[in-house]
Amino acid sequence: MTTKSGKKKIPIRPRCIHGPCLLFSRFRKGARIRYYACSAYRDRKDCSFYWPADKAFPLDKARQIRRMAAGKNRASRFDSNRLSEIRMLNAKSRAFCFDCCCLVLPKETDAHNSHRLRKRITNRQLDRPSSWLPPIWNRHGEAQYWFTDETTHFLAKTVNKFSVDGVLCIGTPRLHELLHIDGKKRSFLLDIDERYEQFFKPSDFARFNLFACYFFTQKGKRHCKQFLESCQRLVIVIDPPFGGLAKVIGKTLQTVMRMHKRAHQSPNVACDLLWMFPYFLERKVTAIMPRLSMLDYQVEYDNHVHFNSASNRRPSPIRIFTSLDPGSVPLPVHEGKYRFCNICKRFVAAENRHCQICHSCTSKNGRPYVHCFHCGKCVKATNIHCEACSTCHRKGSCAAEDDTQDSH
């Protein structure tokens, strides 16, 4: 597409009030349909934006949506003055309205009389809102799963071990809360949950859409930049939705890392990463960021039945992908789930045995692996080598045998 002057015209990326949209595709009646939709919410009930990929997005519509988003964000009920006013009150004068999702001042109580209220909000509860706020759950958008206390303290201990100036927490409110209470490391929280605006100062929190690398307010973006400027040595801890595309998450992380690098002219600038993601997506993570290594630590969540050892016999599949040297990150051996491998010089899962042929501890899921001489690598102990397809898999799950049976 070109202008009248002959210059190439850059197409405008469609956007909704939650930021720039992502390009999706689906098949209908054998035809592939490409379209733009909200990057934060996949459910049309939460955001109905839809734009065909083959249709140019008008500049005036983009401006209109920007104005709508700016107006909505300026209309926020929460500001730092209100937070100061709340903190000056004693616990019995504080309340939280679950219907309106806001802290309630004494003078506002009458307007919330018929609502669901939590009264007597203590200082500890103000400091740790994720310990009592109901999680937002939507399988197509926000799905809040909060770290267990054990995982939160492990992450805090890990970042405190290294000489960093600050921690950028992306989607990790519990870690941000603990670091604030502990006071050993400065931290800044980026999260799409706007409820946190009323619990943290603008210098500590900004509402952020991870999948579009989009700050909902310029004020939030400015405060985040100021935080990055104050941290020559930074560590980013991110816990994204596991259904999100690793490629999109990686692109946002690379953008944030560039923001941090541009803020400093020193050769000593450094930015490390701790990324929570399922172990079975390791290839996708390392394809985007080859310098990351997977730790054997099993990340657990209070409110997820499958990612919590207290409610599930299987270990959590969530791991930490990090740019830190794996040998420098001690895992909690006192829990009985981890050990130190003297050959690999790193901590691994207790059942992750060292393979003398592969020269490493090869288990990915925390359970024993065995070496397959046909495949030339270690595989799950429950797998068997199949002559039909020349790979190892569970008994009865051979695709080659299925194809053979279908042909008869």
> So, CATH architecture of the largest domain?
3-Layer(aba) Sandwich
Mean pLDDT, as a whole number?
88
Into which percentage range does the β-strand content fall? 15-25%
The helix content is 10-25%
The spatial strand order of the largest sheet comes to 12-11-10-9-13-14-16-15
Inertia-based shape? globular
Helix count, per DSSP?
Answer: 9
CATH class of the largest domain: Alpha Beta
Looking at this structure, what is the CATH superfamily of the largest domain? Vaccinia Virus protein VP39
- Give unreliable regions as ranges: 403-408
Helix and strand content put the structural class at: alpha+beta
Largest sheet: 8 strands, mixed
Keywords: Cytoplasm, Methyltransferase, Transferase
Organism: Trichuris muris (Mouse whipworm)
Protein name: CTCHY-type domain-containing protein
Subcellular location: Cytoplasm
Question: What is shown here, in short?
Answer:
GO terms for molecular function: rRNA (adenine-N6-)-methyltransferase activity. With 408 residues, the protein is of the alpha+beta class.
Which terms summarize this structure?
408 residues, Rossmann fold, eight-stranded mixed beta sheet, 24 strands
